[in-house]
TrEMBL record:
Function: Methylmalonyl-CoA epimerase involved in propionyl-CoA metabolism.
Gene3D superfamilies membership: 2,3-Dihydroxybiphenyl 1,2-Dioxygenase, domain 1
EC supergroup of this enzyme: isomerase
GO cellular component: mitochondrion
EC number: 5.1.99.1
PROSITE patterns associated with the record: VOC
Organism of derivation: Panagrolaimus superbus
Ranges where the VOC domain occurs: 30-158
Protein name: Methylmalonyl-CoA epimerase, mitochondrial
Single GO BP term: L-methylmalonyl-CoA metabolic process
Recorded family membership: Belongs to the methylmalonyl-CoA epimerase family.
Catalysed reactions listed for this entry: (R)-methylmalonyl-CoA = (S)-methylmalonyl-CoA
Length: 158
């Protein structure tokens, strides 16, 4: 059985703060969004609308090969992704995951170029060599999932 007394919780909080001295300390900000690939964008949007969420219209992102729908949660977002064209990376994802699923997480950084230099220096591979403009109109870069605990990770300049 686990014991979570006040002293134990304080100790855990203090211990977790020691991790902020890592190389990415000061670079990583808040969770911006979790992106979910959807085989049926209308159905997925409807699900969040039924829950009372603030759901955007679908936006075509031709340069990324996706349609996006943004669900504003106040402190972060959910980004629904649906293929736009046959060469869409989301189409490839949905071929492997017929029901859809979490595609990536996005974390804000204060300086995308500094973040790219830092992750590369740490041996974390990026997908592409430099930032591109993402769906929110801000510079982004993706980190290879094999270097990020199996999770495709997007860094977005805040």
């Amino acid at each position: 059985m686990f014991s979570f007394g006040a002293a134990s919780i304080r100790s855990s909080i203090i211990t977790s703060r020691t991790f902020s001295t890592s190389a990415l300390s000061g670079l990583l900000g808040k969770l911006n969004h979790v992106a979910i690939a959807c085989p049926d964008l209308e159905k997925a949007s409807g699900f969040y609308k039924k829950l009372g969420a603030n759901v955007s219209e679908a936006f075509p992102q031709k340069e990324h090969g996706v349609y996006t729908v943004f669900i504003n949660l106040g402190n972060s977002k959910i980004e629904l992704l649906h293929p736009l064209g046959e060469k869409s990376p989301i189409a490839t994802f949905l071929q492997k995951n017929k029901d859809g699923g979490i595609h990536h997480v996005c974390i804000e950084v204060r300086d995308i170029n500094e973040a790219i230099k830092t992750v590369k220096a740490l041996g974390i591979r990026t997908i592409g060599d430099e930032a591109k403009i993402g769906a929110h109109g801000k510079p982004v870069i993706f980190l290879h999932p094999k270097d990020c605990l199996g999770v495709l990770t997007e860094l977005e300049q805040a």
